[in-house]
Design brief:
By secondary structure, this protein is an alpha+beta fold.
Amino acid sequence: MGSMFDGNYFIPPLSKFSFNFPNPREASDEGLVAYGGNLEPNRILTAYRNGIFPWFNENDPILWWSPNPRLLLYPKDFKVSKSFRKVLRNKKFLVKFDYNFEQVIENCAKIREAKEGTWLIKSMREAYIELHKMGFAHSVEVYEADELIGGLYGLNLGSAFFGESMFSLKSNASKIALKALCDIAIKRDYKFIDCQVPTPHLQSLGAKLVDRDIFLDELEEVLQKGGDIGSWNKLNWEYADG
């Protein structure tokens, strides 16, 4: 496999036989760390433990990223506007955890494909579904009258959650899912929710741009704690009681 360059940075190919990644602190600000390898679930977990995530289009090689700065949401910083507070008081929505992970990831893919094409191609969906079966990937789902109307999914490692994607079929649905995740994160003393790259929507909800070195330092800290591996179904009653 040949090499790639990101500006003046050499981008190494990954071996299919090793899960080692280059040091993300030495990557460009754009954050392309490596390419190639495969989406074997343990490789993905190794990537996240190093502050790296896969993100690529269908006809690209697998690309591995650690951008600078990084967008993080510290759970207590979640912003609840007056209008959103009114939505929450209505209490017509039900939040569930890990009730239908596969439907959540399929909806995330469909929403993005309809807008601008999706990086959530079949191989990515299959990899995260396998991570869900292993107890690392989780979904937060919002229902109205038993209909799934929004949600999000991502990975839990240590005392942090690494968000991957969200969707809304009705107004405020994904925002309710993120609020529920923040509530649980506060209860469980999670340090941050990784939002990866900046979006105006997430920044309006309280997410902040953080220097990559600071993020990687905080990542080392959160990985010292055991994560909530296994089904998050048990969080349904915990969140309801909250």
